[in-house]
Amino acid sequence: MRDKGVDFLTNPSEAQYQTGLSYYIGSNSLEKNNTKAVEWWEKAAQQGHAIAQYNVGRCYRNGWGVAKIDEKKGAEWIEKAAAQGHVGARGRCYLEGWGVEKDEAKAVELYAKAASQGDFAAAQCNLGVCYHYGQGVEKDEEKAMEWYVKAAAQGLDHAQCNLGAFYEKD
């Protein structure tokens, strides 16, 4: 979502990030294109945009919009985002053991911190996943649902899918 208070002329990395996001999501006027999304996010990431750094890292780690999976390059970008205080990125590093010793409890702590800072839907969804599967916390489907609902209410499609999976069990 575009922050109405951002001046794109004085903050070109935000404009580049938003352009990448537009390609990643797609719309009526712009066809979804992960390769172009990564290109734009890399421009923003090279200028220090933490969210773009995290997204580029995830793309390389998962092979989205890039020629091939490159876990090392992905971890480097995620670490750059984490070093700037991107709490969700740091949580992912601990959950997966990317560049740090795997520590699921530390990941949960970081996701909870990010989720409590406001509308950070990805952290809320990740916290739901941790409760859903008992990663770093005791498995608690009720708490998982609470976090999924918060993230889904912000339009995060992954959280909406996770909620759907709960309802399919009934």
CATH homologous superfamily designation of the largest domain: Tetratricopeptide repeat domain
Number of domains: 2
* Helical percentage: 55-70%
Number of helices: 9
**Shape, principal axes of CA atoms:** globular
CATH architecture of the largest domain: Alpha Horseshoe
- Number of separate strands: 0
Looking at CATH, which topology of the largest domain would you report? Answer: Serine Threonine Protein Phosphatase 5, Tetratricopeptide repeat
Q: Please tell me the overall pLDDT.
A: 87
Uncertain spans, ≥5 residues at pLDDT below 50?
none
Rg, rounded, reads 16 Å
- Bin the strand percentage: under 5%
SSE string, helices as H and strands as E: HHHHHHHHH
Strand count, sense and closure of the main sheet? Answer: none
Structural class: mainly alpha
Assembly type of the shown chains? single chain
- CATH class bucket of the largest domain: Mainly Alpha
How would you sum up this structure in a few lines?
This protein is an all-alpha fold. Helix content is 67%, strand content 0%. The mean pLDDT is 87.
Could you explain how this protein is built, in words?
With 170 residues, the chain is mainly alpha-helical. The chain has two domains: 1-85, Tetratricopeptide repeat domain (Serine Threonine Protein Phosphatase 5, Tetratricopeptide repeat); 108-170. The chain contains nine helices and no strands. It is globular.
